[in-house]
Amino acid sequence: MSKSIKKIGVMTSGGDSPGMNAAIRSVVRTCAYHNIECVGIYRGYEGMIEGDFKELNARSVKGIINKGGTVLKSARSNEFRTPEGRKSAHKKLTEANIDALVLIGGDGTFTGGLFFNKEFNFPVIGIPGTIDNDIYGTTHTLGFDTALNTVVECIDKIRDTASSHNRLFFVEVMGRDVGHIALNAGVGAGAEEILIPEEDLGLERLLESLRRSKQSGKSSSIVVVAEGDKIGKNVFELKDYVEANMTEYEVRVSVLGHMQRGGSPSCFDRVLASRMGVKAVESLLEGKTNYMVGLLNDEIALTPLEQAVKGKSKINKELLRVSDIMST
Amino acid sequence: MSKSIKKIGVMTSGGDSPGMNAAIRSVVRTCAYHNIECVGIYRGYEGMIEGDFKELNARSVKGIINKGGTVLKSARSNEFRTPEGRKSAHKKLTEANIDALVLIGGDGTFTGGLFFNKEFNFPVIGIPGTIDNDIYGTTHTLGFDTALNTVVECIDKIRDTASSHNRLFFVEVMGRDVGHIALNAGVGAGAEEILIPEEDLGLERLLESLRRSKQSGKSSSIVVVAEGDKIGKNVFELKDYVEANMTEYEVRVSVLGHMQRGGSPSCFDRVLASRMGVKAVESLLEGKTNYMVGLLNDEIALTPLEQAVKGKSKINKELLRVSDIMST
Amino acid sequence: MSKSIKKIGVMTSGGDSPGMNAAIRSVVRTCAYHNIECVGIYRGYEGMIEGDFKELNARSVKGIINKGGTVLKSARSNEFRTPEGRKSAHKKLTEANIDALVLIGGDGTFTGGLFFNKEFNFPVIGIPGTIDNDIYGTTHTLGFDTALNTVVECIDKIRDTASSHNRLFFVEVMGRDVGHIALNAGVGAGAEEILIPEEDLGLERLLESLRRSKQSGKSSSIVVVAEGDKIGKNVFELKDYVEANMTEYEVRVSVLGHMQRGGSPSCFDRVLASRMGVKAVESLLEGKTNYMVGLLNDEIALTPLEQAVKGKSKINKELLRVSDIMST
Amino acid sequence: MSKSIKKIGVMTSGGDSPGMNAAIRSVVRTCAYHNIECVGIYRGYEGMIEGDFKELNARSVKGIINKGGTVLKSARSNEFRTPEGRKSAHKKLTEANIDALVLIGGDGTFTGGLFFNKEFNFPVIGIPGTIDNDIYGTTHTLGFDTALNTVVECIDKIRDTASSHNRLFFVEVMGRDVGHIALNAGVGAGAEEILIPEEDLGLERLLESLRRSKQSGKSSSIVVVAEGDKIGKNVFELKDYVEANMTEYEVRVSVLGHMQRGGSPSCFDRVLASRMGVKAVESLLEGKTNYMVGLLNDEIALTPLEQAVKGKSKINKELLRVSDIMST
Question: What are the structural domains of chain A?
Answer without folding.
Answer: 7-143+265-310 (3.40.50.450), 145-261 (3.40.50.460)
